[in-house]
């Protein structure tokens, strides 16, 4: 954005841009205002990632409108998370969409070729955590990463996890996804030497308090390389893992 | 107590006891009333364990008074938990006491010879959990158990725990003591085939919320054989472990 | 597992097993990977109990698949908890299942003859706690224990509890199940001399906060022999009680 | 107050009081304004109880000033709760005060002769609850009630409580005071047929969360006649018990 | 119960009762065991109130069974709270029931003539609190009290409350029922000189946290004569108010 | 109200009003009692705003009854919040109503001409916050204010917000509405020099805990001019903003 | 800031400012960087209020340094909140400071003449709330407002509050400050027709949970004109009240 | 570890290692057992970082002992966090230590030359967050990273942050540290295209609940690239940032 100001100032100085137009430009360029949403068209440049639509709380028509606005402005691929089946059906009427009902992820446009530094491992404690895991894995793949899924490797049967030690050791980032007591994050955090992103899930009952137990557990991990995202936030974990997997020397 | 009623009724029938005396007996026998405390002198018979004094919130004089009442009524050994150094000093004026300042446990009278079924393992996640662990271990020893201490075997360095797998597998009960995320309970719970008593500790900071994180973690353990006691309740864990280690065929 | 390593090492040394095969063996032996679940086929040996399926969050097809895998690997009896009627109906198409709809427990295969040290008493505070109690009782019976059910003996009518004092005193383990204020655990804990497993239930309303009140109450029990499992975790209580009832001298 | 308005209106009508004076009277009569406090001198008439000073957060000088204002306006006896030793010493310089340091209660002026309908029982679960109990008992005595103290009758040793069943059955109100799991309220609530006031105390540690556990427990009591006051609020319990013990047919 | 023991002992002494029969009597007399419930038939004698059925969590058949057991044992009137419309319909097939759907209260048998000391006022903050208020009012009427209903007198329009000051001042007990911030309890508590029972309701949204806000508010009331029951517990408030309104000089 | 007392007193003095009538007047004047509600007809005079009906927890018939009572007493316009579609349909049978289903607001009678000091800006963090925002905006318009809506200007795309800096700087009050982390309030609070009313919304999932996260965030805002209303309380924010926008020199 | 950009752009266009200098200007103008703090020297222009120093967590030397930086840049009066006595003493060595130890407020420089639209009333529920009230009152006075203090007018003695009804009705803003149940905000909110800022205080004990009870209570106020600031945040309330009292027609 | 097993197996096969020795090796190699701590000497190889000592809850002697054990085993540099001044003084008697009292960090041995991919920015919201920030910054430097400190750039004065936009845009990782409402993480998260590690601090009061507010805020960040560590966990953030800054193509 500092650069943008510089460019605009230079054009003002050279007379290519009037003061009024410069102000207008600063205000209108980076997004399109749909009334119910201001679609951020600049983010790809600014942040290196395509716009993602958080589908929850948006009507099917709003989602379709945002996709159309993005495509019109040159965005080829769009990821939609927390997308209802109803919304997916509605969108599919106007464009081709790949929809994963179990994790409520929709994807419009072509998938990229993996271009990250290495592999992202997505590991879950149990079978019930898979829907969150798929949101993470698909997000990471959508953002250009190779993903290795290790499901149902919870700590109550440690040998299931240790059997995959090679794969864990070779990962560039590990996403650990677990509900209940969330111990998986600490155990994996103690085994690997890459960053670990922990996702607590709302899997469990009673004193799991809808994921609070796993959340606190992961925040208090005795293993040092673990950071945490919101409960059930598979998308966030996939997004951050992708950023780490695309870090460059500067 | 049902048995006691039976005995009393039999004596009433046989004329050995008047109705009034029987009622009196029912009321006064099982404890001595010191005003500030009603010392339970029957518990050893009723529950199979000597009376234990919970020292917190009691003055040194009250503690000394309760010990004296117990001794007068034939109790040879007394355990005092959460005992301040001040109270220990006061009590030591009138009787011989062995005091452990780091875990605030005092013991009066002779220690029993171990008579349990097997060994109780006391395992901690870190160095800071040791004071709770010692309360558990000393309690178990006081109640006639052989104890094996495994300290600082937390899950962030799994090999430290696995190195002691033999000892864990041979235990009759395992007490796992951990703060922070409390993952130790689940990992041990998945390895052994005996009952596991989990003690969350208040070790940690921030989102550990004084032990809440470890407590929730342990309650939600994905390993099936784990039950939980209050935060920092080393005594309770030692007491229950002893009961399990003294279970008999009936 | 330490023993297994020893066996494998011995075979490696004697040339019966190549290094590559040994590693393979370490990794693949103890479970079958169904993709969505890694079925633990080793647990019976390692932990002395058959695999139990936690049905919540698993689809009927996944549950049926896990049962089949277990049976294929020699497991005769399988317990499924938190099983929906839909899942039970689905499974019943391919194998014989005994299903208890009120506590959502399914059992496949023959029930064992009781082989524990004594009797497990399952006591509830009220009528509404019965569904959790049945999960506990059926689990204990499935694992080879004799169970005595004492339902609706809550502390607000103490004589209902005292009328069963004999049965309580003769138990080897007592499971106390109560919602609301959960006082039953403390009262029973003060009467018996065996381990007490307390199960808070989500029965109640308002400030019971879905079982939190009973949970905290049981964790803070002034009776010394009480340990606690998760809210509504009847299975866990039955499982632990069974372990205690099968403790052996070592 | 409706009555007061009526009197004032009558005097206005009869010309005994001007409109301006009437308004003035309505505003200034019932309290004296000390700047830092508005001393309520009307409450004895309006509510049937002398003014009580809540000492916490008030300086010794402020407390002394309020006492003086009360005495000047004809109040003979004053109760001060949560009074620091420093405040008691300061007040004792200007008037005679009876101070109970263990429960931080001060009393100025003569104690009344008991004039209630019957006896108030104050029962505690343990020794550590006594300081709250004394605040309740002294308050009740200060307000004209006969009090019977039953201390250390917690539910983990039920016979201690049952030994006092006569006294409980003969009470007009029972105040039950307990920390930890607060089960005493439910057990007593199930035994007696008079109103029970439950006071949770902050006695305990860990998951007692400074009295929250006992508070929730008492609010969820399965016994029907139990109502609850704030944690450690001995004064409130004594005050309400006194009101109940002075209820009159209307 | 102490008295019962005495009677039984006397009969044992005089030979009218064998020891075995005495024990049997102690155990079986006071309730009928229906398997899913132990119906307390002694409570009317012991506690002065008829048995009340808490309908939540009980099936229609269980409720009908308990009513039948009570009637068979001489109980004429039965109150059922939290009763579903379905349960009311089922019960009405076998006996005459008066059912109030808005507060889910059912009443079987004749209503008593009021025999309390005075009037119980039931006051609510708003219109939405009425269903809890009716549970309280009907309970109090069922237990023999005259009830005066003051609905929608919340503190945000103080004149609505002050208009009923006479009625408040003449009450023997006031039940204040309010959600949201629950301030009504404190304002009424400062105006009257009789016991006030406060019932927080789950009325509200957001930071009312299902009644927690009103609950904490009422527990912290700056007015001294207020005690509190569980959120939405209209029954409990009516029950306690009735006990207070029937207190007798002893 | 003080003034009213004065007027009544003057009339009493002058003989225009009897004492009994004066008391009657004090009690009956300001509201109409519908049994289930006491309609406040005085509030417009006393508080400068028309009565608003909080529709939640009221039946369609009750809402219609309150509207009729207000209209009968001269109130021309009525706002109904949290109004169900069912209630709107019912009311529309007897009078003309403008109903906004997405924010559940109904308005009866003519809208006023804006008469405030300036403009109220309503800004939201995202698209999902719009339904709360519309409740705020419509309330403010109903109470005579000009409203400027800025939707979807959340802090994760700061340029969207900065593009509207002029409008923010020219507002007299800003209402900021956001869920999730609620950071919008702090950022706007640091940019403008007028009062900011923050409305946390329940938008989000997991650790947003139904709006708790945004609520705490806004209460802890490091910007000084921010005050907060209840979660999702669009009405309250619009009402307060209107009061601020109508402040007058006194 | 938009205006500033315009000015800078105009100067760039006219050649008065180079592109590089423009960027530099945008970055360096508005604050002075002290390393440990970036002193905001632009805020008076941007937000209409002098910089205020939040003293908590800053060393005496840091506070003195920030004051010096402000004075050097032309700020005449500085307010410091949460200032320790130690910091006040240190600052007093280098400049004249007026320090209020009971509310920990320091003021450097001359006080302004009141220039607001009307009067701000600061009302407290009790004596213990005064220190928060003084922080609010002094802040408002420092920002140019006339303040009227009404202390100890809590709702348990309603007549104390009603006696000041005139003053409340004539206020332009009311700040209500209360701990415990915080009912004062609702009662005042129902009486006045100006904005009410509610400040919960941490006064109380037990279930007040350090101000949480009053906070929730105020957020759920049934009176419509109430907004809330953080617990004990007297400064924030005074600041907002001042903004409201200085609102201008635009 | 999988590799280690392979190596050990190979040596067993080749006869270089006996079975017994192999097992011994697996168990004893990777740590030294000091009784109170098991010093992990393998971690540098396994995880790529030197052992760090968490000083809290360890005595000065224990810390010194662990340092000595590490040095004896070839570890040159040791970082100690949460180190008391007392411990630093004790350690300084036996080896040279650089101690930072304001953030309680101690460092023994030489600092490494930065060898990461780029720069880590450490940004704080206020002055009071600096002690946590220094723990993060020193940790990152200790682990071989170049660090750029941006302190006191909170969102209430947005221009302070925007002035450093260049530095933020050029970072490889940003650590954002803030208390109160923690909005800084979201604002920075929306501006940069590298991973952001958010550290909530316990700075604040009242409803900040010791960092809970900032923690929830950061977990719910609407910006996608933000992950979170425990409250006040500067070390964890620095450690993770270092791992990200050392990610390598695999």
Summarize it:
8 copies of one chain form a homooctamer. The first copy, chain A, is an alpha/beta fold and 250 residues long. Chain A is built from 11 helices and 11 strands.
List keywords for this structure.
40% helix, four-stranded mixed β-sheet, 11 strands, homooctamer, 250 residues, 11 helices
Your description of this structure?
Eight copies of one chain form a homooctamer. In chain A, the strands form three sheets. Chain A has a five-stranded parallel β-sheet with strand order 8-7-9-10-11, with helices on both faces. Chain A has a four-stranded mixed β-sheet with strand order 3-4-6-5, sandwiched between helices. A two-stranded antiparallel ribbon of chain A has the order 1-2. Chain A is built from eleven helices and eleven strands. Chain A has helices at 2-13, 19-28, 43-47, 60-72, 85-92, 130-142, 158-162, 165-169, 184-191, 212-219, 234-245, and strands spanning 31-33, 38-40, 52-54, 78-81, 97-100, 105-108, 119-124, 146-150, 173-178, 196-200, 226-228. In chain A, 40% of the residues lie in helices and 18% in strands. The first copy, chain A, is globular and about 65 Å long. In chain A, helix 1 packs antiparallel against helix 2 and helix 6 packs parallel to helix 11. In chain A, strand 7 (119-124), helix 6 and strand 8 form a beta-alpha-beta unit. At the B-C interface, helix 8, strand 11 and helix 11 of B face helix 8, strand 11 and helix 11 of C.
């Amino acid at each position: 954005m500092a650069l943008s100001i510089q460019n605009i100032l230079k054009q003002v100085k050279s007379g290519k841009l009037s003061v009024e137009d410069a102000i207008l430009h600063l205000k209108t360029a980076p997004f399109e205002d749909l009334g119910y949403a201001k679609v951020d068209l600049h983010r790809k440049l600014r942040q290196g990632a395509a716009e993602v639509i958080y589908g929850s709380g948006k009507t099917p028509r709003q989602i379709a409108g945002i996709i159309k606005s993005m495509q019109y402005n040159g965005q080829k691929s769009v990821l939609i998370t927390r997308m209802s089946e109803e919304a997916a059906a509605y969108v599919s009427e106007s464009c081709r969409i790949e929809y994963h009902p179990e994790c409520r992820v929709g994807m419009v446009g072509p998938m990229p070729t993996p271009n990250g530094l290495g592999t992202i491992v997505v590991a879950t404690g149990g079978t019930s955590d898979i829907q969150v895991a798929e949101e993470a894995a698909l997000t990471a793949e959508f953002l250009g990463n190779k993903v290795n899924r290790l499901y149902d490797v919870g700590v109550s049967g440690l040998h299931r996890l240790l059997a995959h030690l090679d794969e864990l050791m070779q990962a560039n980032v590990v996403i650990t996804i677990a509900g209940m007591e969330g111990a998986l994050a600490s155990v994996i955090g103690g085994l690997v030497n890459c960053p670990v992103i922990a996702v607590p899930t709302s899997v469990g009952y009673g004193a799991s308090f809808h994921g609070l137990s796993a959340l606190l557990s992961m925040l208090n991990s005795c293993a040092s390389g673990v950071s945490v995202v919101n409960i059930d936030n598979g998308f966030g974990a996939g997004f951050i893992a992708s950023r780490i997997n695309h870090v460059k020397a500067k």
